[in-house]
Amino acid sequence: MVCGGFSCSKNCLCALNLLYTLVSLLLIGIAAWGIGFGLISSFRVVGVVIAVGIFLFIIALVGLIGAVKHHQVLLFFYMIILLLVFIVQFSVSCACLALNKEQQSQLLEVGWNNTNSARTDIERNLNCCGFRAFNPNETCFSDCFRSHQCQPCAPIIEEYSGMVLRFVGGIGLFFSFTEILGVWLTYRYRNQKDPRANPSAFL
Description:
0% strand, mainly alpha
């Protein structure tokens, strides 16, 4: 059987959805690990990561069931959802890769001012206090606050933000191309007849 056949399309689609399943379980596991070891105290951040993991798991499950059963309706909805996810993820990944240092700094400051729990995690893990300047009159949870000799967090965060954005943008761009591959495989697989099935059963 050549790779353009029914079995190859089915196996490739199953393998792709198994990859998505593993990634979704990894996201949920990382969020649980961060909470368990006290690295993340922001339930909003953890909630978003877990929600993304569950969403990806459901999509992968729909695609896997549709591929195994050659279910036309499940495969159609899977293809549409995967196409929408590709558009969003591709746009976000390109935006992450296109941000310059000034735009990164502005976004970091907005995020700093709007998330108290994430701010606490950053101060504790990076051992810094304040964003642009250290103020001994403000509450800070880092170890250096006891000696009142803390660095502001902005220079430390900005040092790594570009690398993190490039990493996130690159990973997102890679997975967006796997999603468009999944859309193409699903479209081709839906229009192929199962050679072992009853011809009248294909709708």
